[in-house]
Amino acid sequence: MVESFERQIVDFLSRYPNELFKSRELARRLGIRNDKDYQVFKTQLRVLQDNGQIMRVKGKKFGHLSIPRYAEGKLQLTKQGFGFVKTEDEQKDIFIAPRFIGSASDGDTVRVSLFAESADRKKGLKKEGEIIEILSRSSAAIVGTLQRNRKLYVVANDNRNAKDVFVSKDDLNGAEEGDKVVVEIESWGSGHQNPEGKIIEVLGQAGEVASEIKSVAREFKLPLSFPAEVIRESEEILAQIPPAEIKRRLDYRDQLCITIDPADAKDFDDAVSLESREDGNYKLGVHIADVSYYVRENTSLDKEALDRGTSIYFPNGVIPMLPEKLSNVVCSLRPDEDRLTYSVLMVVTPKGIVKDYSIEETVIRSKRRFSYEDVQKIIEDGGGTTKEDYPDLILEMFKLSSVLTKKRMKEGSIDFESAEAKFQFDEHGKPTAIVKKVRLASHRLVEEFMLLANKVVARHIGLAKKEEHQKPFIYRIHDSPDPEKIRELSHFVEKFGYKLRIDGGVTTKALQKLLNDVKGTEVENVINEVAVRAMAKAIYSDRNIGHYGLAFDYYSHFTSPIRRYPDLMIHRLLKEYETNISVDRRETIRKRLPTIAKQSSEMERRAMDAERAAIKVMQVEYMKRHVGDEFHAVISGVVHFGIFIEVNDLLVEGMVHVKDLRDDYYTYDEKRYSLVGRRSGKQYRLGDSVYVKVVRVNPEERQIDFAITEVEPDNSN
Q: Least buried of 16, 150, 585, 626, by fewest C-beta within 10 Å?
């Protein structure tokens, strides 16, 4: 009891570092009622005071001894209702329990009062706190569906915004019940009060695909148009290249350069060339659109590109980083047109070793635009049908890329193959089919050349250590995974009958062996997805730690400046470092890069989340027309309230709720990742193959509910 009182007293006072309490009040707040316990409690107060663990002031009041500690950062709420505050100076995120969140919303910048650190068995000390002030709101607008239940209110798309927003009938802006809307918050409320707001935009009928895609764009605050000044600057850019600019560059227009892209691509930002040399080596050229020539630092174009960070690709369109004139015309490496490029020219041995290289400002003229399917056909047929197909070039490129792939894998690269869905649409923009994208040899060909160029560029800067001042740079870094997440992954794959060796820490080769083992199986998508989630997130940083997943000591993003801001910035840095820049300029760059890296990482994460949400909208729209239909699927997750289902052929995910398992009462066996029937003993286990029927589709919630119709009998582990 004594130890319990000590801990309770210290923990309680640490939560209220600015307040003082008399002993009776303190005892009452801790739930101590009877006199016997109170006497023990008073004794412990004196002991803690004498030991210097708490303080006592005049008036016989007690308080927290240490100086109050606060932190400021961005709040991230979870679907479970709790949150984390990410700060610049705290190594660990600060955990915020639901009762200490107040009226704060996801993305708000907040001030937190820190509690005493508590022990967490799995993760050591855990930082916790209470939000005491909202410094700035992430947004004054929320996207949701207008509903009525005595009062009019908006239910947010993002269920992390737990409170509905009340709207008066005078502030509907023409919206009707069931519409998808954008509501601007006028009062956030306090305590348990709901926010109040007015509708500023009506997106359309909730559940309709066009309305739902618009709501994704608004939900993630995606810019759907460019400011007038940005458009004006882009229109002033001349497509005609000045002769003087061509003259000062390495002229590659007579070299055989080609582009290889998706069939529906419009922005071609990379071209490749390959020459066989007399010494038996190759000269590989990776030629990247020189966007930095057109988008100059501190222009409106540049600031808008930094704000956007990246292009965002929805199933039915793209939100570009740069205006169309630049991305699809002036900078795009279209065939038979002169284009300014920045090239990495590498001498590569037949074993894939880079013997020499140079990074040059060039001008090229692409001789042919290939789709991935065009190149794949040449690879599979062993040649093209005409000389304009350049079959010898394609086959030689494939040969070199295969060597580079084998070399990279041997050195420890992990080759994640996350499955992607591609949609086919009718004339109304509604999906009529979902096709799983196939990763072709032609994709690998391009990927290997781009990986090599990115690696060469990063090492070019990172290894320049003989200079008096190191060159500030933006690296693409990937930290090693958290050991606890790897242990969880190991336990997870064991349930499917696979092994992941983690003795002494997991190696990239052990992870790759696991991915090879599951390749082609029904659970490949599930295990790949869980393995990706176990990894640290790759980010941009001015501090290099290497890239764990690729097993590269230096890596950067150089090859896509039309659609990624870090690539554009790297082009500028490389050009500046070719000149004798001043120490002051170098210091200015050094101070600016952390902000650019952080912004780019955050915008990349936003783009990924938005793209995932848009794909879910299309999947739900497709499944609306298949209610009652049956599909072959796999159990991809088991929790106490149901079973997660993945329809492999469609990459569609949904759930079978426990309430829909009506043949028995099922209990959750956490250790075996299964639901077990109490009477029958029937099990639904992670990885089981099942046949399911679509029973409910909710477009507004983006949810698909299944019911199990049959379990395959031959899938026991």
A: 150
Query: For 275-300, what is the mean pLDDT?
Result: 97
* CA–CA separation, 82 and 103 (whole Å): 13
379 falls within a domain: yes
365 falls in which pLDDT band (50, 70, 90)? very high
Residues 596 and 677 in one domain: no
How confident is the model over 170-186, as a mean pLDDT? 91
Q: Specify whether the CB–CB gap between 636 and 420 falls below 8 A.
A: no
Whether residue 336 sits in one domain with residue 408: yes
Mean pLDDT of the chain: 89
pTM for the model stands at 0.82
- The answer on pLDDT for 485 being more than 90 is no
Q: Are 569 and 625 in contact (CB under 8 A)?
A: no
Question: Which residues does 138 contact at the CB level (< 8 Å), separation at least 6?
Answer: 74, 105, 106, 107, 108, 109
Per-residue model confidence as pLDDT tens digits over 418-470: 778 899 999 988 999 999 888 899 999 999 999 999 999 999 998 875 555 57
- β pairing state of 129-136 and 109-114: antiparallel
Q: Return the half-sphere exposure (C-beta side, CA atoms, 13 A cut-off) of residue 615.
A: 19
Residue 279, class by beta-carbon neighbours within 10 Å (0-12 exposed, 13-18 middle, 19+ buried)?
Answer: exposed
- Which pair of structure tokens corresponds to residue 185? 């918050």
Specify the residue for token string 């038996």.
280
Looking at the fold, whether 89 and 101 belong to one and the same domain comes out as: yes
Clarify whether residues 523 and 433 are in a common domain. no
User: Residues 565, 600: contact at Cβ < 8 Å?
Assistant: yes
CATH of the domain at 128: 2.40.50.140
- Exposed, middle or buried: residue 276 (CB in 10 Å: 0-12, 13-18, 19+)? middle
For the chain, the domain total comes to: 6
Give SS3 for 357: strand
Which domain range does residue 506 map to?
480-535
